[in-house]
Every structure is written in C-alpha cells, then in structure tokens.
C-alpha cells in the first residue's frame, strides 16, 4: 500500500505576524490604561481628580497692545522754541527698563525701526538707530501709568534736523529748527506735566531721507531729581 503524506502548508512571515497581532488584540482590554489602573487600585487615586482639576486653571489672558496711533500731520498749535544746550541732567526716566517691564509701548511710523529701539535708550551716543528712507521719523511713547515730564533731549547724527515733541495729547507741539548733528538738543517744557503719551518727530534736512538718531531721553520734574 502506498501512503500519501501531505506536507503542511507553509505560512509566509507576513501571515504569521498578522496571526500573532490578532491573538494579542483578542486578549487586550480596549479601555484606557489609566482607567484600568484606577479600577484595579482605587486606593492610589483618592483626591487625584480634584488636584488635576485645580492644576488646569486657565492662564491669564495676555495684555492687549494699544491701538496704533495716528501718524498723520497733527492739527493744532505748533510752538517754535530755542533748543537748550544744558549740562548733563541729574536724572532721566529709565525707558529701557520701562519697556522691558511692559510699562511702555512705542509705536513708530517705520516698521523696520522697531527692531532698533533698544539703541535709543542705552545711554550710549555711539550707538545708532536709522530709519529706512522714512522722513520724518515719528515715535509715540505710551506709558501704562503717568510719568512726570519737564524736558526732552535727542542726539541726532549725519544731518541737521527739525524736531518736535508733543508732551501730551492736549498740549501743543514744541519745535526746534536746525538742530546740529552729533550734539544734544533739548526742549524744556513751560512747566512740568504728568503724561502717559509723548510724541516725537524728527525730520532730516539734508542729503537723504534716512533719519539717524542715537539717543532719546525724557527728563522728570526737578523735584524728582536727586540732590
């Protein structure tokens, strides 16, 4: 008698892997692992839900920036004044610190100038900030809380300049004509005021329209200066 032996059919490796995976899935619990652990060991989870709920408090909303100011020609009175060539002031507002703390917002009519603002308040007349073919350059400084203001100083370069300051939205513009390059030029207000908004305008008078400004200083009232 002839016995026929049929060899078992060989399964491909891919087929074997599929069978193994199906077997694993059949024995798995489809629930969330954290849920399974909580059911098996409830003694470890007392009070956890409450703690998680407290830790998920919403973060405070970020402070909204002030709306952009009007950079167009200002209406109202302009007062031409003589610049003051005064000695180094006893005190000045720390504009760099105010900016860093979020207490001062500065808007500029030249968007590229915003990356160069730090050099205006570093106390170093050798550092320079320059507009990109924008003339006049207008800066509007807006403070979170009022500051006292008695005078403003600027240090321009590479040209003579007409420059003006409006120390408060309800005040006139005070204008100096022909301020020399690489020298401090200062405008003293008729009297010290409290303000939250100061507008500066610098117009280059010769060669091109790239406004170069090295430093800007806001000086407080005399009573706030150290003796």
Report on the structure:
The chain has helices spanning about 15-25, 35-40, 50-55, 95-100; strands at about 80, 105-110, 130, 135-155, 160-165, 175-180, 185-205, 210-220. It is an alpha+beta fold and about 230 residues long. The protein is globular. The N and C termini lie far apart (about 125 Å).
Largest beta-sheet characterization: 8 strands, mixed
Radius of gyration: 35 Å
Strand coverage percent: 25-35%
Point out poorly predicted stretches.
47-55
Number of strands: 8
Which secondary-structure class do the elements indicate? alpha+beta
Which shape, going by the Cα principal axes? globular
Number of helices: 4
Task: Give the termini distance in whole angstroms.
Answer: 126 Å
Helix percentage = 10-25%
Run of helices and strands? HHHEHEEEEEEE
Give the integer mean of the pLDDT values. 79
């Amino acid at each position: 008698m002839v016995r026929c032996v049929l060899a078992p059919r060989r399964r491909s490796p891919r087929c074997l892997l599929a069978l193994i995976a199906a077997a694993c899935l059949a024995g798995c619990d489809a629930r969330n692992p954290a849920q399974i652990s909580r059911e098996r060991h409830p003694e470890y989870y007392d009070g956890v839900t409450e703690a998680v709920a407290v830790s998920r408090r919403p973060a405070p909303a970020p402070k909204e920036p002030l709306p952009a100011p009007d950079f167009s020609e200002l209406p109202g009175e302009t007062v031409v004044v003589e610049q003051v060539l005064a000695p180094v002031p006893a005190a000045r507002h720390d504009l760099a610190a105010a900016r860093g703390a979020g207490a001062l917002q500065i808007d500029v009519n030249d968007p590229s100038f915003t990356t160069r603002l730090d050099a205006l308040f570093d106390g170093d007349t050798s550092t320079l900030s320059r507009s990109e073919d924008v003339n006049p350059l207008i800066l509007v400084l807006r403070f979170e809380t009022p500051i006292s203001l008695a005078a403003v100083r600027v240090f321009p370069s590479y040209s003579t300049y007409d420059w003006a300051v409006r120390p408060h939205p309800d005040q006139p513009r005070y204008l100096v004509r022909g301020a020399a390059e690489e020298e401090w030029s200062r405008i003293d207000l008729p009297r010290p005021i409290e303000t939250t908004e100061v507008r500066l305008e610098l117009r280059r008078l010769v060669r091109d329209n790239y406004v170069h400004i090295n430093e800007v200083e806001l000086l407080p009232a005399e009573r706030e200066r150290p003796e």
